[in-house]
């Protein structure tokens, strides 16, 4: 009979004890926990999601989850806000690039492509659908999402357009309206289709590029400064 076999009555050796892993805890916390919760909300909707399921998927106790988020409402609010924070000021460098370029049309085209890639992406479309579906019972979350993501980026673009107007590179009478028009020229048709079909009828990249190009041309035909004739 060999030592350590199932019939061995001798005490197990120290080397045979289970090795305790150090470092990363077994359960998920912080942003990882919010990511797990977001995936659960996206899969089941606000009404179908449960704190028990989130705790189980995160490998933590319900008590631990409730200590951090006292209710499903609180967890949902944190999930949506965390998503917005991850994209915080993501548009800023692309808007600033409009001020530093000599080819404004090309820079606007790149900005339109960035907007399309971000807002028409599957994760963003799914979160927008989640927020919209829960807006009747969670209106404050929906309002905060619009204010801190969409409105914030439109305001950033409006400030940039106002600077371009002062520099004489554009002729913009109302920067906020001009910013909204630019965003909708780049996004309106594809966003409408993708939201109404739950993302099933996606545009081909060349089609999106064509929408962006035509949107820039329309925008500049409205807001380019008048040509100075000698």
Overview of this protein structure:
It is a single chain. The chain contains ten helices and no strands. The N and C termini lie far apart (about 105 Å). The chain is mainly α and about 230 residues long. It has two domains: about 25-85, Homeodomain-like (Arc Repressor Mutant, subunit A); about 90-225, Tetracycline Repressor, domain 2 (Orthogonal Bundle). The chain is elongated. The relative contact order is 0.09. It has helices spanning about 30-50, 50-60, 60-70, 70-85, 90-100, 105-120, 120-135, 140-165, 175-195, 205-225.
Core attributes:
230 residues; mainly alpha; Tetracycline Repressor, domain 2; 2 domains; 10 helices; disordered N terminus
Give a quick rundown of the structure:
The protein is mainly α and 230 residues long. It is built from ten helices and no strands.
Question: What is the ordering of alpha helices and beta strands?
Answer: HHHHHHHHHH
What's the N-to-C terminus distance?
A: 107 Å
Cα Rg: 26 Å
> What is the CATH fold-level name of the largest domain?
Tetracycline Repressor, domain 2
Total DSSP E strands: 0
- Helix and strand composition category: mainly alpha
Q: Summarize the biggest pleated sheet.
A: none
Itemize the secondary structure elements and their pairings.
Layout: H1 30-48, H2 51-58, H3 62-68, H4 72-86, H5 92-100, H6 104-119, H7 122-133, H8 139-166, H9 175-196, H10 205-223
């Amino acid at each position: 009979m060999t030592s350590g076999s199932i019939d061995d009555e001798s005490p197990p050796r120290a080397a045979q004890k289970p090795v305790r892993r150090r470092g990363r805890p077994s359960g998920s916390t912080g942003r990882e926990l919010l990511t797990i919760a977001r995936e659960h909300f996206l899969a089941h909707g606000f009404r179908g999601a449960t704190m028990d399921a989130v705790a189980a998927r995160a490998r933590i106790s319900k008590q631990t989850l409730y200590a951090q988020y006292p209710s499903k409402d609180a967890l949902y609010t944190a999930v949506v806000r965390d998503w917005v924070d991850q994209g915080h000021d993501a548009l800023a460098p692309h808007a600033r690039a409009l001020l530093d370029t000599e080819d404004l049309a090309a820079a606007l085209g790149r900005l339109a492509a960035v907007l399309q890639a971000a807002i028409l992406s599957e994760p963003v479309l799914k979160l927008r659908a989640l927020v919209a579906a829960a807006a009747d019972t969670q209106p404050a979350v929906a309002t905060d999402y619009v204010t801190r993501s969409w409105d914030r980026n439109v305001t950033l673009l409006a400030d940039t357009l106002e600077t371009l107007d002062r520099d004489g590179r554009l002729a913009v009478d109302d920067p906020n309206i001009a910013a909204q028009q630019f965003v909708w020229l780049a996004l309106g048709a594809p966003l409408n289709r993708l939201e109404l079909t739950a993302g099933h009828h996606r545009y081909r990249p060349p089609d999106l590029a064509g929408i962006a190009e035509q949107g820039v041309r329309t925008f500049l035909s409205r807001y380019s400064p008048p040509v100075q004739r000698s």
